[in-house]
Design goal:
The chain has 258 residues and is an alpha/beta fold. It is built from ten helices and twelve strands. It has one domain: 3-Layer(aba) Sandwich (Rossmann fold). 34% of the residues lie in helices and 27% in strands.
């Protein structure tokens, strides 16, 4: 079992943020986590990795119990890309990617030819070799997102969790990021768990969608099931039109709702 979370609950300052969530992932897949603000999406990712304390009947990643596991052990199983809200340091991209190898080698171990080879191969895969000599603080939003994905890949983990990776990107870079993630999941056999507000992108790129509302699991199923069962209406408390054209879903509010 890649992810096992049985009746996962989180309370913060006496307030229930997640309420008995069940999430079970047996095979590599691309999973989108959707829901309105405050529904518990980011909390879910952080609880799955043990960053936040939680209660559950069972909580494990790749068969390893999260409770009691060291941070290094967890980081060898899952790469986490949080929302980036603060200014970044003037750190060279190549060194940043080398630091991302920590779960495989440790901070004090010398870098090897294998480390450098993997970074070059990953940068080639993501078409960002030209960024390796740049510093993080000079990158655009789209460039930074490629480097964060490269960081996740060089960790060589079976699981990748991302919190709103396209929140501040323009449409072309948003599409580019989702295409890259789909390619990574398919070609590298990773399991990707991605939090997003862009429900249309979730429908078009994910193989499975989890919808949270007020800390509870409202829906867990395929994009087609979500699109055709008025789940989006219930999720956001307003009617939407969902159109399927040229193998893509398009979602927009019903007339009179805007």
């Amino acid at each position: 079992m890649l992810i096992e979370a049985d009746s996962l609950s989180v309370e913060i300052n006496g307030c229930a943020i997640l309420k008995g969530i069940g999430l079970f992932v047996e095979e590599p897949s691309f999973i989108a986590v959707a829901g309105p603000n405050g529904s518990g999406k980011t909390t879910l990712l952080r609880a799955l990795m043990g960053i936040l304390p939680s209660r559950s009947r069972a909580l494990s990643l790749c068969g390893v119990k999260v409770e009691g596991a060291s941070r290094k052990r967890i980081s060898a199983l899952v790469s986490y890309i949080p929302q980036i809200k603060e200014a970044l340091p003037p750190l060279e991209v190549r060194h940043f990617l080398l630091f991302s190898r920590f779960p495989r080698r440790g901070f004090l171990s010398p870098y090897t030819k294998e480390d450098y080879r993997l970074i070059e191969e990953t940068a080639t895969l993501l078409d960002c070799r030209n960024l390796l000599a740049r510093t993080l603080d000079t990158l655009s939003g789209g460039e930074l997102q490629r480097i964060m994905l490269a960081s996740a890949l060089v960790q060589e983990t079976p699981l990748i969790m991302l919190d709103e990776p396209t929140a501040f990107l323009d449409p072309n870079h948003r599409i580019e990021t989702f295409e890259l993630l789909k390619q990574i999941q398919r070609e590298a056999g990773k399991t990707i768990l991605l939090v997003t507000h862009f429900i249309e992108y979730a429908l078009n790129y994910a193989g499975r969608i989890i919808a949270l509302k007020e800390g509870e699991l409202l829906f867990d199923g395929s994009p087609d099931e979500m699109a055709h069962n008025r789940v989006i209406d219930a999720l956001y408390d307003m009617p939407f039109n969902v159109m399927h054209h040229d193998k893509r879903y398009f979602v927009y509010p019903s007339e009179g709702c805007v």
